[in-house]
Amino acid sequence: MCLAVPGELLESYDREGMKYGRVRFGSVTREVCLYAFPDALKGEFLLVHVGFAIARIDRVEAERTLSVLLELEQGDAFGAIEPSAAQGGSG
């Protein structure tokens, strides 16, 4: 399963001929490769997967996606499968 997380572009810059940006994901800021979206503008929302912007989204979609991710985290959906069950064991 792949997961892309929405973030807001704070700034963009060139580094060694490649476009990068600082993207805010809640209280965390990370460097993201903007190869697919070199014309992305400050304030735009991007879906980011393993450090690469893979899509542009609007603010409403970004907020909706973040809300769902928070619900999953609070519901412990990521820990719902016990290792023994995932490996076919009987527990």
Q: In order across it, which strands form the biggest sheet? A: 3-2-1-4-5
Kindly provide the radius of gyration, computed on alpha-carbon positions and rounded to a whole number of angstroms: 16 Å
The rough form would be described as elongated
Helix content: 10-25%
Strand percentage lies at 35-45%
Q: What integer is the average pLDDT?
A: 86
Q: Which sheet architecture does the biggest sheet show?
A: 5 strands, antiparallel
Termini gap: 24 Å
Low-confidence stretches: none
How many H/I helical runs?
2
Structural class category: alpha+beta
Number of strands: 5
- In N-to-C order, the SSE pattern is EEEEEHH
Structure description:
The protein has 91 residues and is of the alpha+beta class. It is 22% helix and 40% strand. The radius of gyration is 16 Å and the shape is elongated.
Quick overview:
With 91 residues, the protein is of the alpha+beta class. The chain is 22% helix and 40% strand.
Secondary-structure map:
Elements: E1 5-15, E2 18-25, E3 28-33, E4 45-49, E5 52-57, H1 59-74, H2 83-86
Antiparallel strand pairs: 1-2, 1-4, 2-3, 4-5
Task: Based on the model shown, name its key terms.
alpha+beta; 22% helix; 91 residues; five-stranded antiparallel sheet
